[in-house]
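Z., the sequence and structure:
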Amino acid sequence: MLKINIPLSVPKGKEKEYKKNFRLATNGTGRLMMFAGDQKIEHLNDDFVAKNIPKEVADPEHYFKIASKAHIGVFAAQLGLIAKYGRDYPHVPYLIKANSKTHLLKKEQKDPFGNIWLDFEKIIEFKRQAKLNILGVGYTIYIGSWYESEMFNQAANLIYEAHKEGMIAVIWIYPRGRAVKDENDLHLIAGGAGAAVCLGADFVKINYPYGRNGSAKASKKFKEAVIAAGRTGVICVGGSKKDPKRFLQSLYNQIHISGTKGAAVGRNIYQRRLNESVRMANAISAVVLYNYTAEEAYKIFLGETELKK
């Protein structure tokens, strides 16, 4: 049986709700497969319209069709997007992304700051009136930014309030700003993972060294970040679209060599036609949640076999 570490910030009367949300989000495995749908703000239309991207990807509903058909843990998106489509997709497990910013303002011009969009009270109000399966909240922090203290403050309050309601909290945390010399410095990334556990996050989404092909050697070094995060589960970004077989092998290495607790994948899922997107999401879940090998999961992506829990 899954042993769930319940933070002391969860009141006694909400422990049952927290356990339920944690189990649902992790499919009872303790690992999180998060389908990331926050990039229509983060990357504007860059990830949705291009020669090599199917036209259907540009429609925001493409996200929801995938999330409703595929085996995922949670679908992470902004409240407004969920409000527009959630009525037609009431059974999707949601995580509300509480802050987002575009990529237009470069760090050379000004250090990044993703201000919170809505007070937590409004998120809870929406959860209650929409009656959707909203399991948690998420927030992005840029360590090294001039504004990191403000983001720490907002994130700490969001996590505390989420736990008071028995919801899980996921923190995106990236080194970024003029004070940061190398955003891909593993030692610095590990420091961000450590910051997330100090904030009380249940999971932290951080960068992974895909530039080294996600090799076993790179995965061993990545243990530094997993150890730094302690009882906060590390989930790695999927990044830009990659060769499916290599990507699945990298996910396997992250789980079984680095010791991560899941993955947060967007473009590697949704930048495909619907059926292929669903198969890719299922292949990722096979590796992340159910210990399939990369070869076994690749057959799911190809449509040769189906995911069996």
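The chain has a mean pLDDT of 96. The two ends are 15 Å apart (CA to CA).

Let me know what you think.
H.
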